[in-house]
Design a protein that fits this description.
single chain, alpha/beta, 5-stranded parallel β-sheet, 5-stranded antiparallel β-sheet, 12 helices, 16 strands, globular
């Protein structure tokens, strides 16, 4: 949709990245009354978000900061429980963030009197498709403004350098991972890195500047021991964090970042059928992943584990393609819930310089029938816990 000057208010998903800031500038220039929704999904400190909101208000727009760390952490918990990965085994952190943003902010926009919502995603890209699909489900009555599909916006901002000039001119604070040559998308679950330089497959990944994490060789020489607790098929504690997903995700991120556990360098299949290179930084999930895998190995029988892996592949694609709310994905989650809903235990890990090693495992919460012979050679034994 192209904006018209009819005093209809638009809600803008404002990330603080270059393209969404430029989208806000363009809407302002087009005299579209705009309310910027700056979501705190764990991407950076709150101070920068408040500064951006204050600056936008001084320029004449409405702006509000909304704390969405809890739903973002819940989405990260889902990524782990359901094994929702994409090409190269990387976690669907950006796709999960789109689910959270639209699901939480679109109803708020509607309640605030917005008749349209806008975002700064490139036309025809993954995120444009995600916002469109989730928007149609969460707020079908809101019209959609997509500036980078509008010829007038493209004429005003033909490239990222033009966007940067307009943002700097207005004194808008830019997200530290975004600029004319590169962009990042960050949330509590992880960070995606893209740039024209990285699109060249001859560019070594070492040219990347990680947002949170040390490179493996920069980590401490001594390993760190980490104990992860699970209850009812979900993380319940990371080294004393307690069960709050924000707390344990934050703790896991700090551990993984400190020890250089984070990197996925992937040439991935996109929604539209093309391929592109992306580098993904998810230190917390990369630490927790081996612990959850060990729990699954010790808890599920062979048919159950085979089914889990097949359903996880379905859900990885569903999260990537913004089909998480569709019936097939709902059915896949229900089946995994049946498989792992009563699984618990703890896994002790050793973490050092990019490597996560399982040291000890205890599985509880399920009595498994094991094909294990007793001393007589012909009787079955039943165990309620497995220790490795």
């Amino acid at each position: 949709m192209r904006p018209a000057n009819d005093n209809a208010r638009a809600g803008l998903f404002q990330s603080g990245g270059l393209s969404s800031l430029a989208a806000g500038v363009w809407l302002h220039e087009m005299s579209v009354p705009t309310r910027h929704y700056i979501a705190d999904i764990g991407q950076s400190g709150r101070t920068g978000m408040d500064a951006l909101a204050a600056r936008l208000r001084r320029l004449g727009d409405e702006a509000v900061v909304v704390d969405l760390r809890s739903p973002m952490a819940a989405a990260a918990s889902d990524l782990l429980r359901y094994g929702a990965r994409h090409d190269g085994g990387y976690w669907n952190t950006t796709g999960a963030a789109r689910l959270v943003l639209v699901g939480e902010l679109a109803p708020l926009m509607r309640a605030d009197g917005c008749r349209m919502f806008a975002h700064g995603c490139v036309g025809g890209g993954n995120d444009q498709r995600r916002f469109a699909r989730y928007g149609a489900q969460a707020a079908p009555e809101l019209a959609v403004i997509e500036p980078w599909t509008d010829p007038r916006a493209l004429e005003r901002f033909p490239d990222r350098k033009a966007m940067l000039a307009a943002v700097v001119e207005r004194g808008l604070p830019l997200d530290p991972g975004s600029g004319a040559e590169r962009s990042t998308d960050a949330n509590l679950a992880g960070v995606s890195h893209e740039s024209a330089e990285l699109e060249d497959l001859e560019t070594p990944v070492s040219r990347l500047d990680p947002r949170w994490s040390a490179w493996p060789g920069q980590g401490p020489a001594e390993p760190e021991t980490v104990t992860v607790g699970f209850r009812d098929g979900r993380v319940a504690d990371v080294d004393g964090s307690g069960p709050d997903p924000v707390a344990w995700m934050t703790r896991a991120n700090a551990i993984g970042a400190r020890h250089g556990v984070w990197l996925r360098d992937v040439v991935e299949r996109r929604i539209i059928g093309t391929v592109c290179r992306g580098v993904y930084e998810a230190p917390g999930l990369e630490v927790l992943g081996p612990a959850w895998t060990r729990i699954l190995q010790a808890s599920l029988d062979a048919p159950g584990r085979e089914l889990y892996d097949r359903l996880a592949a379905v859900l990885g694609a569903a999260m990537y393609e913004a089909r998480w709310l569709e019936p097939a994905a709902q059915a896949a989650r229900a089946a995994i819930d049946r498989l792992v809903g009563d699984v618990g235990g703890s896994v002790t890990l050793s973490v050092r310089r990019g490597v996560v090693q399982v040291e000890r495992t205890e599985v509880t919460g399920r009595v498994e029938q094991q094909t294990r012979f007793g001393s007589g050679g012909n009787r079955w034994s039943e165990v309620a816990a497995v220790r490795t």
